[in-house]
Design a protein that fits this description.
The protein has a single domain, classed as Jelly Rolls (Sandwich), CATH 2.60.120.330. The termini are far apart. Strand 7 and strand 8 form a beta hairpin. 25% of the residues lie in helices and 17% in strands. It contains 8 helices and 12 strands. Keywords: Iron, Metal-binding, Oxidoreductase. This is Clavaminate synthase-like protein. One of its GO terms (molecular function) is metal ion binding.
Amino acid sequence: MDKLPLHPSKHPKLTNRHSKRFFNLDTATKNLIPRPASDALEDHLGYAEYGVGHISQLVFDEAAVEAHRIASPDHKETLEVGNPANPKNQWLPEPRFPGFRAFYARFWDACNEVEAALRRALCDILAIESDTLCRMQSQRFGHISFLHYPQMVLQSASATATAPAGQEPRRLNAHTDYGGLTLVFQDHVGGLEVHDGAVFRPVAPKPGTIVVNVGDMLERQSNGRWKSALHQVVGPREETLGARSDKGKLVFDRYSIAYTGAVDPEVMIETLPGCDVPGKWRPSMADWDQEKPVTSYEWLTKRVAAEYHQG
């Protein structure tokens, strides 16, 4: 049996192997565990085939969501899995996909330990009790997204990072993450980009590393001290890949995994001690919760409903 070390990025081949094994299954097998055709948060589990689900950034009006979906579709398929103890998780039968469920339980625990260490470090930075953020996530109310981006055209060095939406092929539209901290595990292909306030910049894959995103909840809790990272996934650019230039060809399937930690469902997303003075950034949640604070459940429900809007 494979053994996963505490630090999950130390075994990228093991992690990616299970992801590729799943997405290489035939469509009928993957659709044995379909994500329900629902925008309910409780149904955000299972396999979403290519064309199901659509990311947008803080677009909630139904007509606007549908217009954005048509103009700028995502190019991905996903497998969504929650806390291993969640009875609504969907698992393929062991003979169809041997070893995955056991692997997932170990990987989930490892990601939780890494994220908890980061939460404690953030509390130390704020000079508040080191378990403040951990107490808010006692139920381990997060999930893991396994993502496969099928082949697409490689972007040239001349492709500008500020091209208008819809004029440059995107695998995943620009968005912020919904929760507290996200741990992103990239393969070697590249294509992840983060907005620095002016332009999108590539986040080059580096073996043995985890990309950590601040999400909407933590941005709101820190009162804009820490920025919820606006990011997207595009075809990898020549400046990211160096000499490996296949410009104009359909190349490079991309696989990535995102672990997203979230505050417990009933907890209000409010300003943390030590963050009373507004930071540099205006929280993404500000427009929606200006009348009253919202719970983690309310915010996640709103974001997931927009992503899986049934047009």
